[in-house]
Amino acid sequence: MKSQSSVVIVLFRFSNSDRERSGKEERERCFGSRRRSLRYRISMSSDPQNAVVVGCGGVSIDFLATVAAYPKPDDKVRSTSLKVQGGGNAGNALTCVARLGLNPRLISKVADDSQGRGILDELQSDGVDTSFLVVSKEGTSPFTYIIVDNQTKTRTCIHTPGYPPMIPKELSKSSLLSALDGAKIVYFDGRLPDTALVVAQEAARKNIPILIDAERPREGLDDLLKLADYVVCSAKFPKARTEASTNPQALVSMLLMLPNIKFVIVTLGKDGCIMLERSVDAGSSMEEVDADNLLESLKLKRNKSVSIPTCISSSVAKLKAEGIGTVSGKLYVGTAESIPQTELVDTTGAGDAFIGAVIYAICAKFTPETMLSFAANVAGAKCRDLGARSGLPYRADPRLASFVLEKLSTSA
């Protein structure tokens, strides 16, 4: 704890007035460019341009300091750059969704302080509907110190939760129903567990699809997973949740434990992702295949000379996990973009960008192969700038043009 405190003091040593002025100037610079960028959104009738997406989860202000190399205990170092911008998993993912052209509504909580106002301003400037956020007259808004190591391209987060936490009664029944009205999908990042469960139960009653970001085991997450249609996991979550020894076995286990899930994805950073999609049409005579062996066979088919994201899929099979069981489904291996070291800036929020793109792909009815490649492209674009949001691409970004054109051709 001593070493963390020393680092934070050195990186962020300025008075409260300096902090607010620095944050305000940085937000104005960022928000002004975002407002100008909104003019470049394009409208296509065959895309889910007006689809409503509801998100429930965390928001924050991020203080991002880049250092030449992460300090050792009791070291004092200077930051090479400082950036102040909005963060939080739900806030980041819905910002991504908004820039891709959908209509996101966010359920969360901030305090009526300078950080809370900054959070609201940034979300609103990106087109996120914040009318369902609770603004507490007392307390503090969440914030995170993020130390970006320019040498290893890694980041370390030190988060301070907001206080007091959101409770279900702060979201009235009428507000909840208004938020869910017309929604195509509801997304949860696993935070605000009591409120999230109330929202998820109402969404399930209305047959609105539910996507869960399973980043790590959290209070109340299991209750949310039981209601989920789609799950996107961090690299460590599936094995931690199921105690399986490999990811393929863990994904089989998750589909067996959670019968409502249509697919589960595990993101693996620079190694791409794995997805297991449930099949409901598999015949009893279908061949049984070991899940681990199937994954290895798909990996051998990857073309490592290609830098752009690709996706390889198996045929529908009965996937067997030794000692766990079998499930009928289809396995996918998605690659990440191979980003040159000179272009890789920061991985903060890459998972949120990936999830935002998956949400868009579900609304756009992309094929699984297209969805995973699209999401990897969006995440790769994000990694070329500092912070969780600066690099998020807009709908008209040339890097996404092939996916828009593919959707148009399949819709014709």
Automatic annotation (TrEMBL):
Highest taxon, organism lineage = Eukaryota
Gene Ontology MF: a single term? kinase activity
Question: Which InterPro entries does UniProt cross-reference here?
Answer: Carboh/pur_kinase_PfkB_CS, Ketohexokinase-related, PfkB_dom, Ribo/fructo_kinase, Ribokinase-like
Keyword presence, Repressor: no
Carbohydrate kinase PfkB domain residues: 57-278, 332-393
- Positions in coiled-coil regions: none
Pfam families attached to this UniProt entry: PfkB
Q: Which UniProt keywords apply?
A: Kinase, Transferase
Protein family according to the UniProt entry: Belongs to the carbohydrate kinase PfkB family.
Instruction: Name it.
Output: Carbohydrate kinase PfkB domain-containing protein
Please report the organism this UniProt entry assigns to the protein: Psophocarpus tetragonolobus (Winged bean)
The taxonomy runs: Eukaryota, Viridiplantae, Streptophyta, Embryophyta, Tracheophyta
